[in-house]
Each structure stands twice: as C-alpha cells, then as structure tokens.
Amino acid sequence: MLRRDIFVTTADAVVIGGGVIGTSIAYRLAEENRKVILIEKEEIGSKTSGSCDKAIFLQSKKPGFPSELAKASRAVYENLEDELDFSFEFKRGGGMIVVQSEKYLPFMEDFVEKQKQAGIDIQLLDKKEAIDQQPILSKNIVGSTYSNEDAEVNPLLLSQAFADASRRKGVEIRTHTEAVDVSIENGKVVGVKTAKEYISTEIVVNAAGPFAPQIGDMADVNTPIQPRRGVILISEKVTPVVKGNILCSQYLAAKHLTEEAPAFGIGLSLGQTDDGNLLIGASREFKSLVLSQITGWMTIFDNEVPHLAL
C-alpha cells in the first residue's frame, strides 16, 4: 500500500545510477523511443565516475571477452563528442606500461605477444625508445610497451555529456533521489519506489556501480560485485610533462598474476589532466587504505619517474 503523499508515475524503463554507465544506458534507451527515468541519489557523476582516472587503456585488458569488449567501447569514442555535441576532453594520447625490472620482462614479452594475437596494436620498446617516448621516465627502467590505441577522457564531463544528451531525448533525470525499494510481482519487476515517488515500470537497469548489490537485494537478485578501491593523488597544476597514460608492469601483474598481487595491488599509474593536474596512483585493494600502502606506492613513483618526485 502506497502512502497518499507518494506521487505515482510510469516509465518504460528506470535506470538507477547517474554515472557514465547509467547515463549512457539512459541515452541509448531513449534512442529507441522509450520513456526513461534515471534516478541518482546524489549528483550526476558524483560517485565512481567522478573519482576515477582518465585512462581508456585498451592494451591492459586480458585477451578474450575483456579485450573484445574494450575494443568495442574504444571504437564508440571516435565520434562520440560530435554525437553528443559536448566536449569531454577525449584525446588519442597513447599509453605505456613501464617494465621497471628484469623480473617482469618475461611476463611482459609474453603479454605483448598475446595482445598482438588479440588484435591490439602494441609494441615492446627498449629503454632508449621508452625514454625517448616519455622523457620523464627513470634511466633505471628496462623498457616499456606502447600502444597508440590507448586514449583518455574526463569521466565527469563524459557523464554530464550523456546526461545532457539524454535530457534532449526526453529522459527525466531525478538527482538527489534514492531508490528505496524495487517492487516484484509474480517474479517480475513492476516498479521502483523512492521517498516521494512510485514509478511503475517493467524494466529496471541497475547501474549503481559499487552500490549495485544493495539494489539487487531489493529485487532478491544476487549481484556478485565486490568493490575494489583505488586511491589516486592529485597534484597542483603544473606544465604538461606526461604524454598519454602510464602504467607499470607490477600494476599489470597485480591484475593478471595472482602470485604477484600484493594485498593492495600496488603499482604506478600516471596521467595528467587538461588543466595540468598530475593523477598519481594507484592502489588496487579490497580493504581500506593505510599509511604503509601510500609509502610503498610513492617509493615506486620516486623510482620510475624521479623527475616528478614529490
């Protein structure tokens, strides 16, 4: 039974979550002439999409489905700014994965060959070639990969671009609106309840990111997502010094080799915003950050890009 002060409306689909995924899905559903309502408990892009780095890193994805999905996603960006009529700082800057010691060289040689077989445009550079490409790198590195297919984007602006384009196509966006329940009848979704509104619908898209399990529980759907926290340090604005995006082989090994992954998956990631802020990271952890992790992380940064050491 609904309270009398609850407003009732209808929609073909309700999207829960206002990040890049939620806003893009709302936009694509609206292209199919569906009536769409998107609800976001804070502001557009204010959670995960507004807290990540700017890398579109194709070469780091595992061959198979992750790589194929990444390639399809990367292709969308080529004309997306024109389609959405919004600049979200998309650049084809390329990317590098630095090999910081001989220990990781066999792994990286094998990884590059597998990526080539998967159709990724990637090459393995020696030390001189890597430093020529990225002069800020340390002379102590062994080498680096390079792919010109990697790119970068401002994820907060991208979320806003999809949101604005969605509104132009008729999507109703409710910010500061939290889903409090998903109604089920005879095993099917029939509506979404917020504090002030009941939306009758047959389609609910759970795009709540790390909060997706909570939404799934409302519909008795198990959503096996375990958030993995990453922390990035943001510098003051400096002159342009970083070309594209940089990862390191330890970071990659932490993703792909279980025996190489410390508890917090530490390893260098580095990029620079259009405004000049350095994005220095990053941890990959399932637990809260502690000081010892930051210390180890910054040691890697000092070793691999000493010209930028803080």
Automatic annotation (TrEMBL):
Domain of life: Bacteria
InterPro entries given in the database record: FAD-dep_OxRdtase, FAD/NAD-bd_sf
Pfam families: DAO (PF01266)
FAD dependent oxidoreductase domain: residues covered: 12-286
GO MF terms held by the record: oxidoreductase activity
GO cellular component term of the entry, any: cytoplasm
PANTHER family: FAD-DEPENDENT OXIDOREDUCTASE DOMAIN-CONTAINING PROTEIN 1, SARCOSINE DEHYDROGENASE-RELATED
Name of the molecule in the record: FAD-binding oxidoreductase
